[in-house]
Backbone:
């Protein structure tokens, strides 16, 4: 993503280098490309150009492209850690009050600021209250409501909106030729997630998912095997639970509308069947339970996933199983 995709470029274009605020907070759903936008804005702030662009020729741009710019401080959740820690912020504080190495701007980029520990967050707030000269914070969050009001009030917030179907399609078409529509639908118009789905061999994954779910509904027989298998495939687990929710949402649409409804086509047989044969109260109750499990698996949980899955599948089998209808 060297050039910003069209749905992100407009946010950068709305900023002017002469009138930059010292802190920006980009927020929105996961998978919209906030990290790319952070990088693009940060690089442009450091470039010698008078506009907010990267010339790719000046000393700053050269240092950035070799990952070696001394005035660019990028803070992220370290691998295997739960939080952005206070020590990461203290390291930062030790350097940013000194003048910049190249005598110009300094940039601090922080992704997923909701994952800062309490101490780290307090420490960032102190810096934001008395920001060093010519220093710019570019931060992002998937969960804006988890960010302390004190930090939010010192930042300019920019909401990154979900792109249109066509914007997603055009962007994905540059790299992929098949299954783009399905990937966009399944990611709910989140291009980076759609891209990951296409890289994950989406069609195969999806057809195994549909086979597993039909099996659970038709005969509760394979519940133990399927929960064991799914809980081993951690990378795709939250996604599959999300797809379970989509089936229920589609079933609810079938239940409540006679006319043509927009539903995911490859699981339409299941969702139509469920919509026509189960009652809406039941579907909503299962949707709640499925979303609960999704929330649980999306955060970090010490609970044994296998048993959580089994209990979810059993609820599906009891509520929707063919023999019970
Ligand atoms: Zn430059």
Residues:
């Amino acid at each position: 993503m060297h050039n910003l995709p069209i749905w992100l470029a407009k946010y950068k274009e709305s900023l002017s280098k002469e009138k930059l605020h010292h802190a920006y907070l980009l927020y929105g759903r996961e998978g919209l490309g906030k990290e790319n936008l952070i990088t693009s804005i940060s690089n442009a702030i450091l470039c010698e150009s008078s506009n907010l662009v990267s010339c790719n020729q000046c000393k700053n741009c050269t240092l950035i492209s070799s990952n070696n710019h001394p005035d660019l401080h990028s803070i992220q959740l370290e691998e295997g850690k739960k939080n952005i820690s206070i020590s990461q912020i203290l390291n930062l504080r030790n350097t940013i009050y000194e003048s910049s190495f190249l005598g110009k701007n300094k940039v601090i980029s922080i992704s997923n600021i909701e994952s800062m520990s309490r101490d780290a967050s307090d420490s960032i707030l102190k810096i934001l209250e008395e920001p060093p000269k010519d220093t710019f914070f570019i931060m992002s969050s998937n969960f804006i409501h988890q960010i302390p009001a004190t930090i939010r009030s010192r930042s300019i917030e920019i909401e990154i909106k979900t792109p249109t179907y066509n914007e997603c399609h055009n962007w994905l078409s540059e790299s992929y030729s098949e299954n783009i529509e399905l990937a966009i639908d399944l990611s709910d118009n989140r291009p980076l997630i759609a891209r990951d789905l296409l890289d994950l061999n989406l069609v195969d994954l999806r057809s195994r998912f549909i086979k597993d779910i039909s099996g659970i509904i038709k005969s509760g027989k394979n519940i133990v095997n399927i929960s064991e298998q799914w809980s081993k495939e951690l990378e795709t687990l939250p996604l599959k639970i999300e797809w379970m929710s989509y089936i229920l949402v589609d079933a609810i649409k079938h239940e409540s509308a006679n006319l043509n409804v927009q539903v995911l086509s490859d699981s339409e047989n299941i969702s139509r069947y469920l919509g026509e044969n189960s009652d809406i109260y039941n579907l909503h109750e299962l949707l709640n339970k499925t979303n609960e499990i999704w929330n649980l698996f999306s955060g970090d949980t010490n609970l044994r996933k296998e048993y959580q899955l089994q209990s979810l599948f059993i609820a599906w089998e009891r509520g929707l199983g063919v023999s019970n209808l």
